[in-house]
Amino acid sequence: MIGALGYADPAYLDVTARLLRALKDDSYDWMQAQPGHRVLDLGCGPGTDTLALAERVGSDGMVVGIDRDPVMLKEAERRAREARLGTRIVHYLADATRLPLGSGSCDASRAERLFQHLSDPAAALAELLRVTRRGRWVVILDTDWGTLSLHSPEIAIERRLARVNADHLLHNGYAGRQIYHLFKRQGVAHVRVAVYPVYAADLAQVRLLTVLDEVERKAIDLGVVTQAELRRWHASLQALEAEGGVFCTVTLTMVAGRKA
Question: Which domains, and CATH codes, for the chain?
Answer without folding.
Answer: 4-258 (3.40.50.150)
